[in-house]
Design a protein that fits this description.
- This protein is about 45% helix and about 10% strand.
- It is built from 14 helices and 8 strands.
- The protein has a 5-stranded parallel β-sheet, with helices on both faces. The chain has a 3-stranded parallel β-sheet with strand order 6-7-8.
- Strand 3, helix 7 and strand 4 form a beta-alpha-beta unit.
- One of its GO terms (cellular component) is cytoplasm.
- This is Cell division protein ZapE.
- Keywords: ATP-binding, Cell cycle, Cell division, Nucleotide-binding.
Length: about 350
Protein backbone atom coordinates (compact mmCIF):
# COMPACT_ATOMS: atom_id res chain seq x y z
CA UNK A 1 0.00 0.00 0.00
CA UNK A 2 1.99 3.02 -1.27
CA UNK A 3 0.05 5.59 0.78
CA UNK A 4 0.88 3.81 4.04
CA UNK A 5 4.59 3.81 3.25
CA UNK A 6 4.69 7.61 3.61
CA UNK A 7 3.23 7.56 7.11
CA UNK A 8 5.71 7.35 9.96
CA UNK A 9 5.37 4.63 12.57
CA UNK A 10 5.55 5.07 16.33
CA UNK A 11 7.55 1.84 16.39
CA UNK A 12 10.30 3.65 14.50
CA UNK A 13 10.60 6.45 17.08
CA UNK A 14 13.43 6.16 19.61
CA UNK A 15 12.84 9.00 22.05
CA UNK A 16 15.92 10.35 23.77
CA UNK A 17 14.83 12.41 26.75
CA UNK A 18 17.21 14.45 28.92
CA UNK A 19 16.67 13.91 32.63
CA UNK A 20 15.64 17.53 33.16
CA UNK A 21 12.83 17.17 30.63
CA UNK A 22 11.31 14.32 32.63
CA UNK A 23 10.81 16.84 35.43
CA UNK A 24 9.79 19.84 33.31
CA UNK A 25 7.17 17.65 31.59
CA UNK A 26 5.37 17.28 34.93
CA UNK A 27 2.72 19.87 34.12
CA UNK A 28 -1.08 19.70 33.79
CA UNK A 29 -1.94 17.85 30.57
CA UNK A 30 -3.25 19.57 27.46
CA UNK A 31 -6.63 17.97 28.11
CA UNK A 32 -6.96 20.25 31.19
CA UNK A 33 -5.14 23.30 29.85
CA UNK A 34 -8.14 25.56 30.50
CA UNK A 35 -9.13 24.09 33.85
CA UNK A 36 -9.40 26.76 36.53
CA UNK A 37 -11.35 27.13 39.75
CA UNK A 38 -13.57 29.63 37.93
CA UNK A 39 -14.46 27.06 35.25
CA UNK A 40 -15.42 24.34 37.71
CA UNK A 41 -19.20 24.12 37.83
CA UNK A 42 -20.04 23.16 41.39
CA UNK A 43 -23.33 21.30 41.59
CA UNK A 44 -25.55 23.03 44.19
CA UNK A 45 -27.07 19.65 45.03
CA UNK A 46 -23.67 18.67 46.47
CA UNK A 47 -22.39 21.50 48.73
CA UNK A 48 -19.07 19.70 49.28
CA UNK A 49 -18.07 20.68 45.75
CA UNK A 50 -18.25 24.42 46.41
CA UNK A 51 -16.58 23.94 49.81
CA UNK A 52 -13.70 22.10 48.16
CA UNK A 53 -13.21 24.86 45.59
CA UNK A 54 -13.11 27.48 48.34
CA UNK A 55 -10.63 25.51 50.42
CA UNK A 56 -8.36 24.82 47.46
CA UNK A 57 -8.30 28.52 46.65
CA UNK A 58 -7.08 29.05 50.22
CA UNK A 59 -4.46 26.34 49.75
CA UNK A 60 -3.24 28.04 46.57
CA UNK A 61 -2.86 31.27 48.54
CA UNK A 62 -0.98 29.48 51.34
CA UNK A 63 1.42 27.86 48.88
CA UNK A 64 1.94 31.14 47.03
CA UNK A 65 2.98 33.16 50.09
CA UNK A 66 5.90 32.90 52.44
CA UNK A 67 5.44 30.57 55.37
CA UNK A 68 8.13 31.47 57.90
CA UNK A 69 7.60 31.48 61.62
CA UNK A 70 9.04 34.05 64.03
CA UNK A 71 12.00 31.73 64.56
CA UNK A 72 12.73 31.51 60.84
CA UNK A 73 11.49 27.96 60.49
CA UNK A 74 9.22 26.98 57.68
CA UNK A 75 5.72 26.11 58.75
CA UNK A 76 4.30 22.80 57.66
CA UNK A 77 3.15 23.08 54.07
CA UNK A 78 -0.43 22.09 53.29
CA UNK A 79 -1.18 18.54 52.21
CA UNK A 80 -4.64 17.82 50.79
CA UNK A 81 -6.37 14.74 49.44
CA UNK A 82 -9.47 14.97 47.23
CA UNK A 83 -11.69 12.01 47.96
CA UNK A 84 -14.61 11.18 45.72
CA UNK A 85 -16.12 8.95 43.11
CA UNK A 86 -15.58 8.73 39.39
CA UNK A 87 -16.26 11.86 37.33
CA UNK A 88 -16.91 14.45 40.07
CA UNK A 89 -14.17 16.76 38.76
CA UNK A 90 -11.28 15.94 41.08
CA UNK A 91 -8.72 16.16 38.26
CA UNK A 92 -10.21 19.49 37.16
CA UNK A 93 -9.74 20.80 40.70
CA UNK A 94 -6.22 19.40 41.04
CA UNK A 95 -5.10 20.92 37.74
CA UNK A 96 -6.73 24.21 38.77
CA UNK A 97 -4.61 24.21 41.90
CA UNK A 98 -1.45 23.55 39.90
CA UNK A 99 -2.33 26.23 37.32
CA UNK A 100 -3.07 28.82 40.01
CA UNK A 101 0.21 28.27 41.84
CA UNK A 102 2.09 28.27 38.55
CA UNK A 103 0.49 31.54 37.46
CA UNK A 104 1.39 33.20 40.75
CA UNK A 105 4.92 31.86 41.25
CA UNK A 106 6.07 30.79 37.79
CA UNK A 107 5.39 27.68 35.75
CA UNK A 108 8.20 25.73 37.39
CA UNK A 109 6.74 26.20 40.90
CA UNK A 110 4.29 23.30 40.64
CA UNK A 111 4.76 19.73 39.46
CA UNK A 112 1.74 17.81 38.22
CA UNK A 113 1.64 14.16 37.24
CA UNK A 114 -0.17 10.91 37.69
CA UNK A 115 0.95 8.35 40.23
CA UNK A 116 2.42 6.27 37.39
CA UNK A 117 4.40 9.22 36.03
CA UNK A 118 6.06 9.75 39.40
CA UNK A 119 6.93 6.07 39.88
CA UNK A 120 8.31 6.04 36.34
CA UNK A 121 10.33 9.15 37.13
CA UNK A 122 11.92 7.39 40.10
CA UNK A 123 12.65 4.42 37.85
CA UNK A 124 14.36 6.63 35.30
CA UNK A 125 16.27 9.02 37.60
CA UNK A 126 16.64 7.09 40.85
CA UNK A 127 15.01 7.93 44.18
CA UNK A 128 17.36 10.59 45.57
CA UNK A 129 17.68 12.56 42.30
CA UNK A 130 13.88 12.54 42.07
CA UNK A 131 13.59 13.89 45.61
CA UNK A 132 16.12 16.64 44.86
CA UNK A 133 14.35 17.65 41.65
CA UNK A 134 10.87 17.76 43.20
CA UNK A 135 12.06 19.41 46.43
CA UNK A 136 12.73 22.54 44.36
CA UNK A 137 8.96 22.82 43.75
CA UNK A 138 6.49 24.63 45.97
CA UNK A 139 3.69 22.19 45.14
CA UNK A 140 3.59 18.57 43.94
CA UNK A 141 0.26 17.24 42.65
CA UNK A 142 -0.36 13.48 42.28
CA UNK A 143 -3.42 12.51 40.29
CA UNK A 144 -4.94 9.04 40.54
CA UNK A 145 -2.92 7.79 43.49
CA UNK A 146 -2.95 4.03 43.04
CA UNK A 147 -3.12 1.44 45.79
CA UNK A 148 -2.97 -1.72 43.69
CA UNK A 149 0.81 -2.24 43.72
CA UNK A 150 2.25 -2.52 47.26
CA UNK A 151 5.81 -1.81 46.14
CA UNK A 152 4.89 1.35 44.24
CA UNK A 153 2.64 2.51 47.08
CA UNK A 154 5.48 2.22 49.60
CA UNK A 155 7.79 4.03 47.18
CA UNK A 156 5.36 6.92 46.74
CA UNK A 157 4.67 7.13 50.46
CA UNK A 158 8.40 7.49 51.09
CA UNK A 159 8.72 10.09 48.33
CA UNK A 160 5.86 12.16 49.75
CA UNK A 161 7.35 11.96 53.23
CA UNK A 162 10.70 13.26 51.96
CA UNK A 163 9.02 16.13 50.12
CA UNK A 164 6.77 17.05 53.05
CA UNK A 165 9.79 17.12 55.35
CA UNK A 166 11.38 19.62 52.96
CA UNK A 167 8.36 21.92 53.06
CA UNK A 168 6.81 21.01 49.72
CA UNK A 169 3.01 21.29 49.59
CA UNK A 170 1.22 18.14 48.42
CA UNK A 171 -2.11 17.46 46.76
CA UNK A 172 -3.46 14.10 45.64
CA UNK A 173 -6.54 12.35 44.27
CA UNK A 174 -7.51 8.76 43.64
CA UNK A 175 -10.39 7.07 41.87
CA UNK A 176 -13.02 4.50 42.74
CA UNK A 177 -14.70 2.59 39.94
CA UNK A 178 -18.25 3.65 39.06
CA UNK A 179 -19.49 0.13 39.76
CA UNK A 180 -18.33 0.56 43.37
CA UNK A 181 -20.43 3.66 44.04
CA UNK A 182 -22.72 1.74 46.35
CA UNK A 183 -19.91 0.30 48.47
CA UNK A 184 -16.48 1.58 49.30
CA UNK A 185 -16.99 4.60 47.11
CA UNK A 186 -14.49 6.75 48.89
CA UNK A 187 -10.84 5.76 49.13
CA UNK A 188 -9.57 8.09 51.86
CA UNK A 189 -9.34 5.37 54.50
CA UNK A 190 -7.19 3.21 52.21
CA UNK A 191 -5.06 6.16 51.17
CA UNK A 192 -4.38 7.30 54.73
CA UNK A 193 -3.55 3.76 55.82
CA UNK A 194 -1.03 3.30 53.01
CA UNK A 195 0.81 6.59 53.54
CA UNK A 196 1.06 5.77 57.27
CA UNK A 197 3.40 8.34 58.83
CA UNK A 198 2.05 11.09 56.59
CA UNK A 199 -1.61 10.45 57.32
CA UNK A 200 -1.86 13.04 60.07
CA UNK A 201 -0.55 15.76 57.73
CA UNK A 202 -3.18 15.27 55.05
CA UNK A 203 -6.45 17.15 55.06
CA UNK A 204 -9.16 15.06 53.40
CA UNK A 205 -11.69 16.90 51.24
CA UNK A 206 -14.66 14.78 50.29
CA UNK A 207 -16.11 15.69 46.88
CA UNK A 208 -19.61 14.27 46.60
CA UNK A 209 -21.55 14.07 43.37
CA UNK A 210 -22.52 12.06 40.36
CA UNK A 211 -20.37 11.31 37.33
CA UNK A 212 -20.94 14.55 35.40
CA UNK A 213 -20.31 12.76 32.09
CA UNK A 214 -22.98 10.16 32.86
CA UNK A 215 -20.84 7.60 31.11
CA UNK A 216 -20.71 3.84 31.43
CA UNK A 217 -17.76 2.09 33.07
CA UNK A 218 -16.46 0.94 29.70
CA UNK A 219 -16.85 2.52 26.29
CA UNK A 220 -16.24 -0.15 23.65
CA UNK A 221 -14.75 1.20 20.46
CA UNK A 222 -16.03 -0.73 17.47
CA UNK A 223 -13.26 -1.34 14.92
CA UNK A 224 -12.88 0.60 11.71
CA UNK A 225 -12.26 -0.99 8.35
CA UNK A 226 -8.48 -1.34 8.05
CA UNK A 227 -8.43 0.28 4.63
CA UNK A 228 -10.13 3.32 6.18
CA UNK A 229 -7.58 3.34 9.00
CA UNK A 230 -4.69 3.34 6.53
CA UNK A 231 -6.24 5.92 4.19
CA UNK A 232 -7.14 8.31 7.01
CA UNK A 233 -3.63 8.12 8.49
CA UNK A 234 -2.09 8.78 5.07
CA UNK A 235 -4.24 11.87 4.61
CA UNK A 236 -3.61 13.45 8.04
CA UNK A 237 -0.50 15.52 8.84
CA UNK A 238 1.12 14.34 12.06
CA UNK A 239 -0.44 10.86 11.88
CA UNK A 240 1.35 7.62 12.68
CA UNK A 241 0.44 4.15 11.44
CA UNK A 242 1.48 0.90 13.13
CA UNK A 243 0.51 -2.71 13.32
CA UNK A 244 -0.66 -3.28 16.88
CA UNK A 245 1.85 -6.06 17.56
CA UNK A 246 4.73 -3.92 16.28
CA UNK A 247 3.78 -1.09 18.61
CA UNK A 248 3.41 -3.39 21.63
CA UNK A 249 6.84 -4.87 20.95
CA UNK A 250 8.33 -1.38 20.65
CA UNK A 251 6.82 -0.23 23.94
CA UNK A 252 8.82 -2.95 25.68
CA UNK A 253 12.03 -1.23 24.50
CA UNK A 254 11.08 2.28 25.68
CA UNK A 255 11.00 3.30 29.34
CA UNK A 256 7.43 4.33 30.26
CA UNK A 257 8.71 7.72 31.44
CA UNK A 258 9.49 8.41 27.78
CA UNK A 259 6.08 7.50 26.34
CA UNK A 260 5.14 11.18 26.35
CA UNK A 261 8.19 12.03 24.24
CA UNK A 262 7.27 9.15 21.95
CA UNK A 263 4.18 11.19 21.02
CA UNK A 264 5.97 14.47 20.28
CA UNK A 265 4.39 15.99 17.19
CA UNK A 266 1.81 13.20 16.86
CA UNK A 267 -1.71 14.35 15.98
CA UNK A 268 -3.33 10.97 15.24
CA UNK A 269 -2.41 7.37 16.07
CA UNK A 270 -3.65 4.68 13.67
CA UNK A 271 -3.43 1.00 14.56
CA UNK A 272 -4.19 -2.05 12.45
CA UNK A 273 -4.57 -5.62 13.63
CA UNK A 274 -5.79 -4.67 17.11
CA UNK A 275 -6.56 -7.74 19.21
CA UNK A 276 -6.82 -8.97 22.80
CA UNK A 277 -3.66 -8.64 24.90
CA UNK A 278 -2.85 -11.81 26.78
CA UNK A 279 0.13 -10.79 28.95
CA UNK A 280 -0.24 -8.44 31.89
CA UNK A 281 3.12 -6.72 31.46
CA UNK A 282 2.20 -5.86 27.87
CA UNK A 283 -1.26 -4.69 28.94
CA UNK A 284 0.13 -2.39 31.64
CA UNK A 285 2.49 -0.73 29.16
CA UNK A 286 -0.47 -0.18 26.86
CA UNK A 287 -2.37 1.46 29.75
CA UNK A 288 0.46 3.98 30.21
CA UNK A 289 0.46 4.79 26.50
CA UNK A 290 -3.32 5.31 26.52
CA UNK A 291 -2.95 7.69 29.47
CA UNK A 292 -0.35 9.75 27.60
CA UNK A 293 -2.55 9.80 24.48
CA UNK A 294 -5.50 10.98 26.56
CA UNK A 295 -3.42 13.68 28.27
CA UNK A 296 -2.55 15.04 24.84
CA UNK A 297 -6.02 14.60 23.28
CA UNK A 298 -4.58 12.48 20.45
CA UNK A 299 -7.34 10.72 18.47
CA UNK A 300 -6.92 7.01 17.76
CA UNK A 301 -7.99 4.85 14.82
CA UNK A 302 -8.50 1.19 15.72
CA UNK A 303 -8.57 -1.55 13.10
CA UNK A 304 -8.70 -5.29 13.70
CA UNK A 305 -10.97 -6.11 16.65
CA UNK A 306 -11.11 -2.59 18.09
CA UNK A 307 -10.98 -2.16 21.85
CA UNK A 308 -13.65 -4.77 22.61
CA UNK A 309 -12.00 -7.50 24.64
CA UNK A 310 -8.56 -5.89 24.45
CA UNK A 311 -8.04 -6.76 28.12
CA UNK A 312 -8.99 -10.23 29.29
CA UNK A 313 -11.78 -10.96 31.76
CA UNK A 314 -9.12 -12.10 34.22
CA UNK A 315 -7.38 -8.73 33.97
CA UNK A 316 -10.67 -6.89 34.52
CA UNK A 317 -11.25 -8.88 37.69
CA UNK A 318 -7.69 -8.63 39.00
CA UNK A 319 -5.72 -6.22 41.14
CA UNK A 320 -5.05 -3.78 38.30
CA UNK A 321 -8.64 -3.58 37.14
CA UNK A 322 -8.95 0.16 37.85
CA UNK A 323 -6.10 0.81 35.42
CA UNK A 324 -7.73 -1.33 32.73
CA UNK A 325 -11.19 0.18 33.12
CA UNK A 326 -9.71 3.67 32.98
CA UNK A 327 -7.79 2.76 29.84
CA UNK A 328 -10.90 1.32 28.19
CA UNK A 329 -12.91 4.44 28.97
CA UNK A 330 -10.18 6.72 27.66
CA UNK A 331 -9.40 4.59 24.61
CA UNK A 332 -13.09 4.50 23.74
CA UNK A 333 -13.29 8.30 23.87
CA UNK A 334 -10.15 8.73 21.74
CA UNK A 335 -11.41 6.15 19.24
CA UNK A 336 -14.67 8.05 18.87
CA UNK A 337 -12.61 11.17 18.09
CA UNK A 338 -10.68 9.14 15.53
CA UNK A 339 -13.87 7.78 14.00
CA UNK A 340 -15.07 11.34 13.49
CA UNK A 341 -11.89 12.15 11.56
CA UNK A 342 -12.23 9.02 9.43
CA UNK A 343 -15.78 9.95 8.43
CA UNK A 344 -14.94 13.46 7.24
Amino acid sequence: MPAAAAVRALAAVRPSVPADRLVTDLVPPRHFARARFSTYRANPAYPSQARTVARLEEVAAEVSTSRRSLFGRRKAAPAVYLDGGFGVGKTHLLTSLAHTVGERLGTDAAAYGTFVEYTNLVGALGFLPTVEALAAKKLVCIDEFELDDPGDTVLMSRLLRELADRGVALAATSNTLPEALGEGRFAAEDFLREIQALAARFEVMRVDGEDYRHRAVVTDAAPLDEAAVTATAAARPGATLDRFDDLLAHLATVHPSRYGALLDGVELVALTGVHAVARQDVALRLVVLVDRLYDRDVPVLLGGEGSTGIFTDEMLRGGYRKKYYRALSRLGALAEDGRGLAQR
